[in-house]
Design a protein that fits this description.
By secondary structure, the protein is α/β, with parallel strands linked by helices. It has one domain. It has helices spanning 20-31, 87-93, 109-116, 164-172, 206-217, 220-244, 254-264, and strands spanning 70-75, 97-101, 120-125, 137-138, 154-161, 182-183. A 6-stranded parallel beta sheet has the order 2-1-5-3-6-4, with helices on both faces. Strand 1 (70-75), helix 2 and strand 2 (97-101) form a beta-alpha-beta unit. The two termini are 33 Å apart.
């Protein structure tokens, strides 16, 4: 976080259950010997539920949907602390989201158990050009081999949540992931994420990658959740930048309207 205090919005944030990324952030803060100083943005209080300024809090918009797919976020050390981190948004939207701090030398027993759980079919989501051997790579969940999504199993998408240079290092130095297929995404899109920029337009932020994964599952509920996540990112980005530039929230914006339309079509509760 920034050097400012993080303050819960009692009307909404205090009623929300902490999700996996929130819990990882609290554990990371407990280990800190000095405060994390975020770059950019005005100094001031931030909401514990959404990490935005209280005036721009979006906790009331948190969707929290059940999906067939699940996500496993392997987060580089500082990522849970960054207000601009979008892995947090995945955990806001997708109920089955797991988050672990990445370590080069140690494998978290809970992560090991998750990857071994037979209900899941894990996929490491990463550009195929970096995967060896090339036979590990696939671009769809359909197909006739053992890498395709099997009946009765649910996809578990493993996302490396870090800067691009950090993610490449994590991919190379995580031998416990070597046995899983690498899902390589080739969307005909340009990233619209505006808070932290890559040098390449085809490098997507973590929540954009998650939305694309949900669309690949093909289940109607997952496709819908992917659309919600994409729109939720749009609202988060808009409010983050409005707070940074000391502009008021525009709840009539196209981003807000799109999210309301999508949420209006989502049943209140769905079974995974």
């Amino acid at each position: 976080m920034s050097s400012a205090t993080l303050t819960p919005q009692k009307s909404v944030a205090s009623t929300l259950s902490p999700h996996a990324v929130s819990r990882l952030r609290q554990a990371r803060l407990a280990r800190s010997t000095r405060p994390f100083l975020a770059r950019g943005g005005p100094k001031g209080e931030r909401c514990e539920g959404c990490r935005l300024r209280p005036s721009h809090c979006m906790c009331a918009l948190r969707p929290e949907l059940a999906t067939r797919a699940a996500f496993c976020l392997l987060m580089h050390d500082a990522e849970p602390l960054k207000p601009s981190n979008t892995g947090w948004l995945i955990a806001d939207v997708v109920q089955d989201t797991h988050a672990f701090g990445w370590s080069r030398t140690e494998l978290d027993p809970q992560l090991e158990a998750l990857l071994a759980d037979p209900q899941w079919q894990p996929y490491v989501v990463f550009p195929g050009e970096y995967a060896e051997p090339a036979e590990r790579v696939l671009e769809t969940l359909d197909g006739g081999d053992s890498r395709a999504l099997q009946p009765g199993r649910r996809p578990l998408f493993i996302l490396l949540d870090a800067t691009w240079s950090e993610a490449r290092k994590m991919f190379r130095k995580s031998p416990y992931l070597d046995g899983f297929p690498v899902l390589s995404l080739h969307p005909d899109l340009i990233s619209r994420y505006q808070l932290r920029r890559s040098k390449r337009d085809d490098h997507f932020c973590t929540s954009e990658v998650a939305a694309l994964c949900l669309e690949l599952v093909g289940d109607a509920g997952d496709v819908q959740a992917g659309q919600v996540l994409e729109s939720y990112l749009g609202v988060f980005t808009e409010r983050y930048l409005q707070a940074k530039h000391q502009q008021p929230v525009d709840e009539a914006s196209s981003a807000h309207q799109r999210l309301r339309e999508l949420m209006g079509a989502v049943p209140a509760k769905r079974d995974a």
